[in-house]
């Protein structure tokens, strides 16, 4: 039995009539859409669709609903918690051909894009216009995928995550209905906030096809600073103190000494030693940037930091942030032949030092190599556990560590995931974190997707 027969001749024929050659059951294409960047076991979809418009997405969803065929949206494939792994008899809907920037308004500081536009594509389009979109998760993810996972990143401390930067959406619901949520106004008191409901829903309530985004004016001046510490707690205290006195940090990243070894190997940051390190960036006028840098330098000195190194030139700042964004590959340089199981957690700033120190003790107890990087300004940090996926003991230790980190974060009043999302990888922690509120989530899912066809098995478990 071939893939089309396995999918069902009727739905395959219907999808082919909608898309022509842009619907395929070729094994190589299906293999590419069988997984993201995480550790979940790959599952081949029965077919892959490449729509180019909202109308085509609606037709695909209607056909799949008619034939009870599950659907999973697919963007850049950079997700880490199994979000894009399809159900065994489902269809993957690849959004990358929906990559048009539909409108940019410098006056209103907003733009509208199709879901397949990538972060870097939008950045390149906006740069000559004196505006920018601030959410930077590192990966060149699609903006539809970033919205669906509620992405954030290095700039969240100042500009917020996707929830603060998405004004409205066009979404195809599970029955093929197209709805528009939100708008271009900066606030509204009219009805339920469906935009925020759909941000972070991971394709379980509908497929996002267009996104209205909030833009920011490009800062007149940008400056970065680097400071190293003997103890990781001193670096964390430096950031907390800076936030408390009102320093307007645009980026604020912690890198532990293990990750700094990786940066030295992979990115050539030989001028910095293998110590806990802060990478900080300031945006504003030349005067305000200098003042912020001066204040942070004083705070670093009070907390035992090294001499602060400033980076004003674009190429010097880019080198620092490229090293940070290449953290995954820096970890691979530390452990050739192994792969990284990446996880994240987020806790209140008041518990951050305690949580990171307990996590480091866990790493030692499990005998793991697991560098830590963190968005210190919002209490979010990441661990990349290096292990051999063929070594059962390695994998068991890594999974045990990830579970303990998630539970610790929840117990401290935080969350099992600050930005990677739930997917299938962390679905087991959702009930512990949200308690009876999960029943409300489940009711919303069943109301909008009664057949459980939209990315089933992700975010919340639905009994059928």
Unreliable stretches: none
Q: What is the count of structural domains? A: 4
Secondary-structure arrangement, i.e. CATH architecture of the largest domain: 2-Layer Sandwich
Question: Which strand order do you get reading across the main beta sheet?
Answer: 15-12-14-13-17-18-16
How far from one another are the termini?
A: 28 Å
In what range is the share of β-strand residues? 15-25%
Count of individual helical segments: 18
Helix proportion:
25-40%
Shape label: globular
Rg, Å, rounded: 22 Å
According to DSSP, the number of beta strands is 18
Q: Overall pLDDT, averaged?
A: 93
How many strands, what sense, and barrel or not for the largest sheet? 7 strands, antiparallel
* Broad CATH class of the largest domain: Alpha Beta
Structural class: alpha+beta
Named CATH topology of the largest domain: Uridine Diphospho-n-acetylenolpyruvylglucosamine Reductase, domain 3
Blueprint (SSEs and pairs):
Blueprint: H1 3-7, H2 9-19, E1 23-24, H3 27-32, E2 47-49, H4 54-66, E3 71-74, E4 91-94, E5 101-105, E6 110-114, H5 119-126, E7 131-132, H6 143-149, H7 156-159, H8 162-165, E8 166-173, E9 178-182, H9 194-198, E10 206-214, E11 216-217, E12 221-228, H10 232-244, E13 249-255, H11 257-266, E14 277-284, H12 286-302, E15 309-311, H13 314-325, H14 327-334, E16 339-346, H15 352-365, E17 372-375, E18 380-387, H16 392-411, H17 427-434, H18 437-448
Helix pairs in contact: 2-4, 10-12, 11-14, 15-16
